[in-house]
Amino acid sequence: DAGVTQSPTHLIKTRGQHVTLRCSPISGHKSVSWYQQVLGQGPQFIFQYYEKEERGRGNFPDRFSARQFPNYSSELNVNALLLGDSALYLCASSLSHSFSGNTIYFGEGSWLTVV
Amino acid sequence: AQTVTQSQPEMSVQEAETVTLSCTYDTSENNYYLFWYKQPPSRQMILVIRQEAYKQQNATENRFSVNFQKAAKSFSLKISDSQLGDTAMYFCAFNRENAGNMLTFGGGTRLMVKP
């Protein structure tokens, strides 16, 4: 079975532009979350989605938004990009939004560079 | 809000020896979960070991074991018989009960295993 897949793997954007990152969870997983990992730091939680509804949001500005589709895949959108948005964006999936021993699986991430 | 602190930015160990990585956390919750994740150069987060706070017994997974001290809010990872493939960033993470995929990560410890 395929793991969590993310696309694109690398991309370069200019300040002020918009970016869309995509994530496909493991088959059967209904919960998807997004993390931002700035170089040299630990990941920071951005969003969690379950059954197409937002179930949690981290301390990120409104320029960050996300959605989940009926097939449980997800998109992370970032508007008006800033240099500080340069980071590895990780997607994670699990069976449900309520952690009851479920293992959380991570994708390999999307490297975003803002110039 | 929860915080997770890893006080050792970098550590090194000789192959076949034992190393312990430290992690402390701060929370007012009584039930929660703690994790150690490994992030090799490929950048994919891999779950190493998990501990439920209500379990007094320390978790073990082959060469990996934890020392969980709930009162001290300490959660260290011991790697026995270190192997070259253990070279990676290691992140300690906290998860509230029923918080789904919302993990709070520490800043990480870079572990180098030397031949």
Order of helices and strands of chain B: EEEEEEEEEEEE
What is the terminal-to-terminal distance of chain A? 37 Å
* Large-scale geometry of chain B: globular
User: Which range does the strand content of chain B fall in?
Assistant: over 45%
Instruction: Estimate the helix proportion of chain A, in percent.
Output: under 10%
| Proportion of beta-strand residues of chain A | over 45%
* Overall number of strands of chain B: 12
Distance between the termini of chain B: 41 Å
The number of distinct helices of chain A, counting runs of at least 4 residues, comes to 0
Form type of chain A: globular
The secondary-structure class of chain B comes to mainly beta
Q: pLDDT below 50 for ≥5 consecutive residues: which ranges of chain A? A: none
For the secondary structure, the number of strands of chain A is 11
H/E element string of chain A? EEEEEEEEEEE
Tell me the quaternary state: heterodimer
Indicate the mean pLDDT of chain B.
Answer: 94
Biggest interface pair, counts? A-B, 32 and 26 residues
Sequence stretches where pLDDT stays below 50 over 5 or more residues of chain B: none
Please state the CA-atom Rg of chain A, rounded to the nearest Å: 13 Å
Number of helices of chain B: 0
What do these coordinates show?
The complex is a heterodimer of chains A (115) and B (115). By secondary structure, chain A is mainly β. The N and C termini of chain A lie far apart (37 Å). Helix content of chain A is 0%, strand content 50%. In chain A, a hairpin with a 6-residue loop joins strand 4 and strand 5. With 115 residues, chain B is mainly β. Helices cover 0% and strands 53% of the residues of chain B. Chain B has strands spanning 3-5, 10-14, 19-21, 24-26, 32-39, 46-52, 60-61, 64-69, 74-79, 88-96, 103-105, 109-114. In chain B, strands 2, 5, 6, 10, 11 and 12 form a 6-stranded mixed β-sheet that branches. In chain B, strands 3-9-8-7 form a 4-stranded antiparallel β-sheet, with no helix packed on it. Chain B has a two-stranded antiparallel sheet with strand order 1-4. In chain B, a hairpin with a 2-residue loop joins strand 7 (60-61) and strand 8 (64-69). Chain B is globular, with a radius of gyration of 14 Å. The interface between A and B is medium-sized, with 32 and 26 residues.
